[in-house]
Automatic annotation (TrEMBL):
PROSITE patterns: PROTEIN_KINASE_DOM
UniProt xrefs under InterPro entries: GSG2_C, Kinase-like_dom_sf, Prot_kinase_dom
Protein name: non-specific serine/threonine protein kinase
Keyword Nucleotide-binding: yes
A Pfam family assignment: Haspin_kinase
PANTHER family in UniProt: INTERLEUKIN-1 RECEPTOR-ASSOCIATED KINASE, SERINE_THREONINE-PROTEIN KINASE HASPIN
GO biological process: intracellular signal transduction; mitotic cell cycle
EC nos: 2.7.11.1
Domain of life of the source: Eukaryota
Catalytic activity: L-threonyl-[protein] + ATP = O-phospho-L-threonyl-[protein] + ADP + H(+); L-seryl-[protein] + ATP = O-phospho-L-seryl-[protein] + ADP + H(+)
Domain Protein kinase: 201-510
Keywords in alphabetical order: ATP-binding, Chromosome, Cytoplasm, Kinase, Nucleotide-binding, Serine/threonine-protein kinase, Transferase
Amino acid sequence: MSYPHLNVWLLQGKALQPPNFDKERAYFQEVDSFELLEESPSPKKPGTWTMGVQVDNVVIPHLSSVLRKWLVYKKLNRSYGFPGSLSKILETPEVSKDPVYHDGFSSSILKTSGKESLQIHSRSNSIQTRFDSSITFGDATGMPIEEEGEDIEVAVTKLSLTSRPSSLDGYRWDSFSALLTACGQCAPSTLTDILSSYCDRESIIKVGEGTYGEAFKVGGNVCKIVPFDGDIRVNGEVQKKSEELLEEVILSCTLNRLRGHESDVVNACTTFIQTIDLRVCQGHYDAALINAWENWDGEHGSENDHPKEFPENQCYVVFVQEHGGQDLESFVLLNFDEARSLLVQVTIALAVAEAAYEFEHRDLHWGNILLSRKGSDTLQFTLEGRQIIVKTFGLLISIIDFTLSRINTGEDILFLDLSSDPELFNGPKGDIQADTYRKMRDVTDDCWEGSFPKTNVMWLQYLVDILLRKKSYDKTHKDDRELRSLKKRLNSYDSAKEATLDPFFSDLFVS
């Protein structure tokens, strides 16, 4: 091959010299050095920096961790949606002149798929993906919301550290902001706002309580109000963190997806309580709630702290859910048929959720099962594509409270690491509930991320024990023997799905 220009240089007796960029290289090295010193100093050892002080042993989270959780949430609950493409989500949000600042953040572990631990830090050094503040609560019917722009799932996979926007005037996005986004908000509401949208506030009555917080009947629904991220202890416990509530929000809406019975649905049931609305609120407890709380306390004697103690900056997540009835502890069963109806509905519901999401409830005590008499004689389930119709004898069951639950959404494994709460396992020996927690710990070997559907079977055994020892209803000695035989056979099952084949349930199926 001929190179005419090279020949000209050679003919003139000059050697061809390569271009010299030494000056340019030196200039850019100087610029690069300056920028590194100003923007991202490299620590001498692994760690990060907070207020100019190096902090060691810090796990830097993946850029897209919270965004991926929002993606899972959006994918599994079509009543929420993005107004635009991924670039819209990641853009710098418009911050109001008087932003709502959130206090009380501290380190906590948020578990993700792939057996990784995501360390969430305080606002001062949080590395979280920004969310678009204009995401809104969508069509409550659950119909898909149209999206514009690039496919969100494809776009998420393209994220890199260079695509992360920096903070704006010190305002950083964190798990609290992600929780706001998951609830379709850009700032907290007040409790008064959400209550007023569902009923006349004077009609509110308290219907239940737990260490998590309070439950109130609001119109035809129930509002579960959970305080979080505060400095004060609530009912003797440290308040939940934003990231824990974010997972519970995602989990609740994942289970909402089981409620469809279309012909192409592989797994479906309506036994898990329906979540209708979600809201992050901030401020003092509403006066109507305090009045309802005091009325309950006067009648039942509350074991919880008085909510008037909450400060003005206290935050809450409000779960607006369907009214599922009375809990099993207070509900009066009439006869053995109703006891069988309870067991078959809970067993098949757990089997459906196992098949769909490797779901384990892990806290299915008698306060987390609601019962009502709604007149229907049968109930339909879909388990791995097979329709199952069971006799209900007019009883309808709802399973609630997924705080301790484990679920595999397909992209994330959401669970609570119960090894961080040793008190849970210190209940008195011989107590049915306390013994069940310890049995779960034995079968999981304290690896709470793993899939152990045997835990569902343990809670079925717990329910059988409750029906034998704690509930009074019309039953015979033969009925008692059947329950004891069922409890014994449950020992041989490793999942609720296996338990559905037990002969105890055979005559409850409608062919």
